[in-house]
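Take a specimen:
=====
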Amino acid sequence: MAMRQTPLTCSGHTRPVVDLAFSGITPYGYFLISACKDGKPMLRQGDTGDWIGTFLGHKGAVWGATLNKDATKAATAAADFTAKVWDAVSGDELMTLAHKHIVKTVDFTQDSNYLLTGGQDKLLRIYDLNKPEAEPKEISGHTSGIKKALWCSEDKQILSADDKTVRLWDHATMTEVKSLNFNMSVSSMEYIPEGEILVITYGRSIAFHSAVSLDPIKSFEAPATINSASLHPEKEFLVAGGEDFKLYKYDYNSGEELESYKGHFGPIHCVRFSPDGELYASGSEDGTLRLWQTVVGKTYGLWKCVLPEEIASENSDSIYSSTPEVKA
């Protein structure tokens, strides 16, 4: 019998959703933040998509957003030449970090004491959040605007991507360790601490590299241009989305395409697995986020598995469906 994937649709944004990030698992569950060109990043309950609040204060498109591990702080990167740090519990703005150009990416260290930023001025900046008045440390070397910058190796190193280059930096010496060059634009980058894996997308390719050495591990080709990909926490599956509005799910070990789903009405800009691996979230040009089950038919969050005998009295269709009770 077929199992029907029924995504939860999270509305509220008015422009394309360009970035999203999950927190770690906290005593209150886990959380999801989304960055949008409407300039209003939103915080949601991660497993249901329920809206918690909107961070108000940016005066331009928000290109990047992240949460610290315990979801007490949020950070956002925007076209108004600022990065902002927020109290994710109260929604209050804690600090504004002025830049000289559009900011595209933000990332907290594990202890939440430092914030890494990158953007159109080609510089990486490291802010000490306990000394907001202090000038940030700056790392130069990129030759085009920085799209993504991430702490790695327990914050001892930094990974960053510009148009066609991924670079690995040593935090202590602020110097470049190694770089990777691509023949087309790098569209996304994800770092998996368990196993030190780096996921890079460019063109139709989804490539996996060692985050320590940048050596290649494996790569897959998708049927369409891919904008983002995410590896399951247990490294069983990966999901990817891009220009053809579809989400693809692959077996990480064999590279076999397991499923593909169309739910968005525009290109997919970002996709990430939840920290427990039970779902993945996607953000699109259509202004929505959607939450998808990793294992269709499992009762989890707002999804409840309805068996054929339970719906026989309502209709004669015997398709198994994993149906959300309400829309977020």
Summary: Residues 316-328 have pLDDT under 50 and may be disordered. The chain has one domain: 9-314. Residues 308-311 form the longest helix (4 residues). DSSP finds one helix and 31 strands in the chain.
